[in-house]
Amino acid sequence: MKYDKYDLIVAGTGPASTFFLKKYLSKASPSAKVLVLERGYLHPHSERLKEKRGESVSDPNLKNGYGLVRGSGKGWAYTIGFGGSTNCWFACTPRFLPSDFKMKTLYGVANDWPLTYDELEPYYAETEELMSISGPEQTPFPRKGPYPLPPHSLTTVDKILNEKYGNLYISQPTGRASRPTNGRSACCASGVCGVCPVNAKFTVENSNLGVYEDERVELVFGAQVYRLELQNNVVSKIYFKKDEKEQSASAEVFALGTHAVSNPHILLNSGDTNQLTGKGLGEQYGLQAVIYLDGIPNLGGSTWVTANGYMLYDGDHRKEYAACLMESNNSPEWMRVESGKWRNLISFRMVFEDLPLNQNYVTTTPDNLFKATTHFKEVSSYTLKGVENMKKKLPKILSCLPVESIEYKSPFGTESHILGTTRMSSNAAEGVVDKHLIHHQYRNLFVLGSGSFTTYSPANPTLTLSALSLHAADKSF
Amino acid sequence: MERRKFLKIAGVGVAAVAVIPVIGYTALPFNDIAVNIILRECESLKIARIEAEKFVEDFYAQVFKGRDNKSILEFKLKLKSYYFANINSEQSEMVHSLVRNFLLSSDFFRNKMDESKPVKYVYLYDPYKLACANPFSNIFYPAVPS
User: Fold this and answer.
1) What ipTM goes with this model?
2) Which of A137, A139, A187, B27 is deepest in the core (most CB within 10 A)?
């Protein structure tokens, strides 16, 4: 390390850290000293694509670049390495609805976020600009002006639903570019977005944000953060393991931007006594609904998820059961083996919100400072009621289509999101961090990412967690 | 109409084996069975046997790459069971995957699902090696200006 003490030390290089740093660097002095500790390494897109093609790769660390925490109850997916989850995400970027931030006030469920949609709106717009998001003119959430890129093309069946439901059935806002932009190609619906074959989706690696190239930033790879030194309600040091050697570094301000299993694990290792640290481990709940159609082939979409349906999302029903967001899937694997009906179907991923439950949690592992233990007991009954309601209502919602039948697949094991383990709240009794993602007790510590989500909207989290990072840094520096 | 049900080997495999003459079950080469499945599932299409044979050879070379002998044997026994038990694409993901990959690897979708044209195996479908090949996308079905 270059210095004995830094102005800011950040753990992790995923979207939460990167957007936080982007804003911080725009406001910090030219002489600011920033240390970034990344547990993994840079695995270039070109190398990951070679691996997928079965070709030999020169990156010796590539095999260690992916992670799956298999805890009690279920597995939690994440990616270790430069860029974090942007290496594996599918780049779905719908905003939350304003009501998602006011679940208690509007529906008497869980808690309100300590900030509103309106407060976050400028940072949503800024994130969308920085990610070059493609999206439609009309959306169910308020936004000003057009998206940076035009929307992706809907399929023939999507168009019927869009005509009937208007802004409740839209071309999905996405980080999968609809036009070549900023060094990225246009998405062409290959359907394997984890490693995009044409590098069309936004990643930290292809972002051109200039964060890690900034001379004020010192980036250290292979550094696993595992503990903080907490003294008199202040963080004074961060401890990490690199090359099997335990080291530490000091700073004025710290930011944990790893992920929502690791962030609370680091806090608990450090002796954080907030009763909710690590509690509420959760995510959305999803299953596939395949709609078999008579006489209509589903063709012409220009990306992997072509549309989002909001017909089962918001309303007074959320007093009793969960919102559901529909994703229209354009993967070529969805086909029928029936003469004359090969593509006469539409496949929806039905994604439900869930509630934070304290019986689902992250904790430490005895005798192993470097490994978190996860416990997941159950999905909420609120969510399961939402699933049953969806099955009752979907036939009527789709009555504008010539539906032959609907098949529901088994629920997915995961939606590949990790939420809620350091929840945001207006006070320490109800959460871990405040509206600026600052720990209620340790006021020089930011805890970034989707662990801060107060409630678990069915909308994908990355856009929102990135906007929260911009907001936090903008308001705090 | 009842749709694909993903069957568990314990149920179907055992039931199928019980009714299948042992000699026929074991004697027919696995690749021949896979070809037979494709031709049976796509009986409305004009597929020369050689086209399915070329595909099956390439497809299972890729599927079995890096797998141990035990899991390959289990896989083959399972698909054989499905074949002799007349399990179709609607009932089995394993059967659906075989047929789906054949169709995606052929010129059938490029010919806009024209069932009157002979179906040829073109290349093994792999979106990482040949991107932008989703045959249902706007590249093949561009929007018609209204």
Assistant:
1) 0.90
2) A187
